[in-house]
Amino acid sequence: MSASQTARILELIAHLDPRVWVLHPHQPVLAAQVVRSADSGPETRLNPQPLPPRDLLRLAIHSTVNSVAVTAIAVQAAGHNVQEVLQEVGDDWCTPADGRLPWPRHWPAPPLSRFDPIDHDTLVAAVQAQAALAFQSYANGVADKQLSTGFAALADRLLKSAADENASDR
């Protein structure tokens, strides 16, 4: 199944359960969490609750995907080859990193020391799958054919890598 098919299935499921929208980088559920985490209102000051580590990781993935997408759009607008940027991000995110979480090297990686003990391969596959779906949302929403194709290719590459990573777990 391609990232495009997976994203479409999740869009359909979201009609029944809107919490699925947390996978999409432009939906209100994610935006509300970011606002809540940055809120310094009276309720937050009285009972400060940091976001759980998995929520922080999910937000870091979306923040990085959004930053990569904005960078790709700027590169494209400047008349440069956007495929080089997306290829480099794919190389970084899909390459084993000696026990560390593979992450695009030009963007800050989340600190994994805050996570519960978790199987590294499963975490890597989950991060790649979530990034794939977020890049696919850009591919579906961008009118520029070259950008759309680049985002879709990166999404498919990340999804394939996640599936391969998950298959090696078994």
Textual characterization of the structure:
The protein has helices at residues 3-14, 28-38, 42-46, 53-77, 82-94, 120-141, 145-169. The protein starts with a helix and ends with a helix. The radius of gyration is 16 Å and the shape is globular. With 170 residues, it is mostly helical. The chain is built from seven helices and no strands.
Rounded mean pLDDT is 77
Strand content: under 5%
N→C terminal distance:
19 Å
Cα-atom Rg, whole angstroms? 16 Å
Order of H and E elements: HHHHHHH
Total number of helical segments? 7
Quick one: how many beta strands?
0
Q: Which overall shape is indicated by the principal axes computed on the Cα atoms?
A: globular
Low-confidence stretches: 28-41
**Main sheet: strands, sense, barrel:** none
What is the structural class?
Answer: mainly alpha
Share of helix, binned: 55-70%
Which descriptors would you attach to this protein?
170 residues, mainly alpha, 7 helices
Short characterization:
By secondary structure, the protein is mostly helical. The chain has helices at 3-14, 28-38, 42-46, 53-77, 82-94, 120-141, 145-169.
Write the layout of secondary structure elements.
Blueprint: H1 3-14, H2 28-38, H3 42-46, H4 53-77, H5 82-94, H6 120-141, H7 145-169
Helix pairs in contact: 1-6, 4-5, 4-6, 5-7, 6-7
